[in-house]
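# step 3/5: fold
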Amino acid sequence: MAAGKLKLAIEQGATFRKLLTYKAGTPAVAVNLTGCTARMQIRSAITSPTVLVNLTTENGGIVLGGTAGTIELIITDTATAAITWTTGVYDLEIVFPSGDVRRLVYGTVTVSPEVTR
């Protein structure tokens, strides 16, 4: 199965939360993410060496929901307030206990600048 394409929009200065559910099969059922880890990076361009945002299960930026198959992406309001860029690209990978890696989604990220500071 190919990775899905999803646009993300971050509001500068606000907490960013995005809840995804990983489903597979026919009919689609939630994939058990128990024992998995996840990682996601935002960069200005695919080839950029600079990571603008790094979310992982280890740093609390990604929370996996076990048998429910949920994946919650979290960026704190303090972290979004510090954003100085307006667009980027990302992808999200799930690492299974077997070591297999699944690129789940990818796409663009836009940041809406904060007015109230």
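# step 4/5: annotate
DSSP finds one helix and eleven strands in the chain.
# step 5/5: archive (pending)
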